[in-house]
Design goal:
The complex is a heterodimer of chains A (about 475) and B (about 170).
Chain A: H1 2-20, H2 33-36, H3 38-49, E1 68-71, E2 82-83, E3 86-87, H4 88-105, E4 109-111, H5 130-136, E5 140-148, E6 154-162, E7 167-176, H6 181-197, E8 205-213, E9 220-227, E10 234-235, E11 243-248, E12 254-259, E13 266-271, E14 277-279, E15 286-292, E16 298-305, E17 308-315, E18 322-323, E19 331-336, E20 342-347, E21 354-359, E22 366-367, E23 374-380, E24 387-393, E25 395-401, E26 409-410, E27 417-422, E28 428-434, E29 442-448, E30 454-457, E31 462-471
Parallel strand pairs in A: 1-4, 1-5
Antiparallel strand pairs in A: 2-3, 5-6, 6-7, 8-9, 8-31, 9-10, 11-12, 12-13, 13-14, 15-16, 16-17, 17-18, 19-20, 20-21, 21-22, 23-24, 24-25, 25-26, 27-28, 28-29, 29-30
Helix pairs in contact in A: 4-6
Chain B: H1 6-15, H2 44-47, H3 55-61, E1 66-68, H4 78-93, E2 98-104, H5 111-131, E3 139-145, H6 156-162, E4 164-170
Parallel strand pairs in B: 2-3
Antiparallel strand pairs in B: 1-4, 2-4
Classes of the chains: A alpha+beta (about 475), B alpha+beta (about 170).
């Protein structure tokens, strides 16, 4: 099967990266003896060369209004070579562009256009021409290189420098299969982002969502997967059945979602490696709103029987569902806390949709939302500190609050924003925005916790129901 | 209300004319290659081809195949009762026919909640039919949430049309 052939390298590549990342410090480009000596020299120089203003760092809230100028010049190749992903010199330019794009999209960095920067020669990668970089206005500098290895893999080196202190802050190397070359750039951007912000990484991650096309009354919906920057896009289903609300398993090897396959709406698990799908709950009742537990052992879902909807959980491998709520209203949209001990969900038991938190066994159900209008689609942050939701009062807007309901903040302002899903580091939300009117259009957007950095996420067709996966191994 | 009485509905059904004033305009003419008999045309010669107990017969015989609901509601109001009563009459004439009731919601709700709401509406219609004597084993339900709007506008009138439960005869 062609699909399997396309997917296989992605699956296999994960352990490759895990095993083959060279320990820091990375062996220098060319591995020349004098190059090896550089890390020690750089380390000795750190303290005296420290900038007077203190260590180089980015404030994740204040940084939005004053993004840090950063330079990411094209990454030279150790030698020009043809690889399965293209020639190394072309890849080196694209690597810099991917890092640039990632950092710019975070809203916290203001990367200088790589094409306008000095051409960095390979021997210069870990010995920057600081005088030049100081003149560009960049406070931080990312240099790197790419090398084609004899076994068909690629090595990408990534170095972060403090321009005014003229010191190296961090370095990492990544060995990837050619099909995963973009991941090396995302890993490099994650290194820079985490080192300078103190926040967790999120660029090397994927998004599953529902690709949409066709007239509003009969939308064709396909399960789709892509990198968080929109690259490596693939359709996983053919659009013959309506598919809704896909969510990654914690190990990212499967997706749980809802399908109208055979005109029986129910939740299925899609195995990304094999393309196989299996029904989760054998039942005549409608099952929907699925989500994995953080340990991957359970699938939380809703089941509608006779007009009443409650929350259940079922072993992810299949089995007998256990009922968690028992109210006469609609209980749906369940989402686990990252430690798996609690569940946030929505219920209209009070008359309209509101958010509730309960223990994972269904006990101690407490309402947490009390603002005007209705609240739905709760999603517990992977950091545990916030719950994202859709608030409906006039417009549909994406907001956040703490798990006890305090500190509510609305992040977006459009006609219909719905269904936020968290980035792996809990700093960014991806959601979908529906257009008002007869077009039926919807597209994917992201917004950070400040609400300032809102941007459209590119997709080949329209998009809805995005779910951000964990950082890749 | 007299228009909705069983007597008149049965009479209407017996003569198999498109007598119901609430019926929407007939479907578009069949595309080239489609079998015209299956679409049940509106003109004289085709009237006789409607098979008693068929989906087409149902649509021609009942007041409407669709009942509507208020915002976020699923109660069967007076208008809906009249429509469902007409469906009961037809279903009692054809006791072997099975139906599915499709529940729908308007776009101004979140996706998963709307799936539950559509299920509620389909079951509200089903429960009414069952209370009027139709066997529950003849009726299945399915919710489409906000996935299949009938009216495509983003306005109150469109949303009112889209909050609905539609009875579909399974042939």
């Amino acid at each position: 099967m062609k699909r399997f052939a396309l997917l296989a390298p992605l699956i296999l590549a994960a352990p490759v990266i895990a095993q083959d990342v060279p320990p820091t410090p990375l062996v220098a480009p060319g591995a020349a003896p004098q190059a090896r000596a550089l890390p020690g020299q750089a380390g000795a120089a750190v303290a005296p060369a420290q900038a007077p203003g203190g260590p180089l760092e980015v404030d994740v809230t204040g940084g939005i209004s004053a993004p840090m100028p950063i330079a990411i010049p094209f990454m030279p190749a150790a030698a020009i070579a043809q690889t399965a992903a293209g020639s190394t010199d072309a890849l080196g330019r694209q690597l810099a562009e991917i890092v640039t794009n990632d950092l710019r999209n975070s809203g916290l960095f203001n990367p200088l256009p790589p094409a306008q920067l000095r051409t960095v020669m390979f021997p210069e990668v870990q010995a920057p021409t600081f005088d030049y970089w100081g003149g560009t206005g960049a406070q931080a500098l990312v240099q790197g290189y790419i090398r084609a290895n004899g076994d068909g893999t690629l090595t990408v080196g990534c170095y972060l420098f403090d321009v005014s202190a003229q010191t190296e802050l961090m370095r990492q190397g990544f060995v990837v299969s050619p099909s995963d070359w973009r991941r090396a750039a995302h890993k490099c951007a994650d290194m820079v982002y985490t080192r300078l912000t103190g926040e967790g990484p999120y660029f090397d991650s994927r998004v599953v969502y529902v690709s949409e096309t066709g007239p509003k009354g009969n939308r064709i919906k396909r399960l789709s997967i892509m990198d968080q920057d929109g690259a490596n896009h693939r359709f996983l289903t053919n659009g013959q059945s309506i598919v809704l609300t896909p969510r990654f398993s914690p190990n990212q090897q499967s997706i749980v979602y809802m399908s109208y396959l055979g005109r029986v709406p129910a939740i299925y698990v899609y195995e990304i490696g094999s393309g196989r799908q299996r029904l989760v709950v054998q039942n005549v009742a409608t099952t929907f709103a699925p989500r994995f537990s953080p340990d991957g052992r359970w699938i939380l879902f809703s089941m509608a029987t006779g007009g009443n909807t409650d929350l259940y959980r079922v072993p992810a491998a299949g089995g007998t569902p256990q009922r968690l709520t028992n109210s006469p209203g609609i209980d749906t949209g369940g989402s686990y806390s990252p430690d798996g001990s609690r569940i946030v969900f929505e219920s209209d038991r009070s008359g309209g949709q509101q958010l509730y938190v309960m223990n994972a066994d269904g006990s101690n159900q407490q309402r947490i939302s009390f603002g005007g209008g209705r609240y739905g689609t709760p999603a517990w942050s992977p950091r545990g500190d916030l719950i994202a939701f859709t608030r409906m009062s006039g417009g549909f807007r994406v907001g956040i609050m703490s798990p006890n309901g305090s500190g509510e903040k609305i992040l977006t302002n459009s006609w219909h924003d719905e269904g936020p899903s968290w980035s792996p580091n809990g700093r960014v939300l991806i959601f979908y925005r529906s257009a008002q009117g007869r077009s039926g259009k919807a597209d994917l957007w992201s917004v950070d916790l400040t609400g300032v950095n809102e941007r459209r996420v590119p997709t080949p067709l329209d998009g809805s129901d995005p779910s951000w996966g964990p950082i890749r191994p | 209300m007299a228009r909705l009485t069983t007597t008149i509905l049965l009479a209407a059904a017996l003569v198999t004319t498109a007598a119901c004033s609430k019926k929407r305009p007939e479907v578009l003419p069949p595309a080239p290659g489609e079998a015209p008999a299956s679409t049940g045309g509106t003109t004289g010669p085709n009237d006789g081809t409607v098979v008693p107990g068929s989906s087409e017969d149902f649509k021609r015989s009942v007041t409407s195949d669709t009942v509507n609901f208020a915002l976020d509601q699923y109660d069967i109001d007076g208008t809906a009762r009249g429509i469902l009563d007409s469906q009961v009459g037809w279903l009692q004439r054809y006791p072997n026919v099975r139906v599915t009731i499709e529940g729908h919601a308007d776009e101004r709700g979140t996706r998963e909640y709307n799936l539950a709401l559509g299920d509620r509406r389909a079951n509200a219609a089903k429960n009414y039919l069952v209370a009027r004597g139709v066997s529950p084993t003849r009726i299945t339900t399915i919710s489409y949430g906000k996935e299949r709007p009938l009216a495509l506008g983003s306005d109150e009138e469109s949303w009112a049309q889209n909050r609905r439960a539609v009875t579909v005869v399974l042939n």
